[in-house]
# Entry
Amino acid sequence: MHKTPILTIALGASLIAALAGCTTAATTSNPTSPASTSTQSPTAGPTITSTPDADYKAPSGMCENGEATIIQDVSDIALPEGCDIVNVLTNGSTVDLGPVKQLNIEGENNTITVEKVEHIGIFGTGNDITHGGEAAVDDQGSSNKTTQK
# Structure
């Protein structure tokens, strides 16, 4: 019995298997032009949506249930009847208010006159507030001025 053909076949198969993993890469000297290069555009992030509570009402600037929120940047705003709580979120407005228990100001560069107020919370910048009554003032903003009339 000859073992030579089996040994030759086994060595040949091993050589073919070893060389099968070897490849050569062809290189070209054709550079791509900048216009033809592709860039990956950033992918959009997740879309955030929300559904307001069924009882939610957008601020109207009117006193409803003892609270008024003023959000429009207009030159003159008046709420002569006042309200228990008034939130001023405007910029560069003149606001005239009747009697108020709590006045919160988050806007900037407003001129606010309030007939009488118990507490003023200021979180904005550059507001000028003139008020009646002995108000407790909590100024957490900057460059605000409060004057008692």
Q: What stands out?
A: The first strand starts at residue 67 and ends at 70. Residues 67-141 form one domain. The two ends are 123 Å apart (CA to CA).
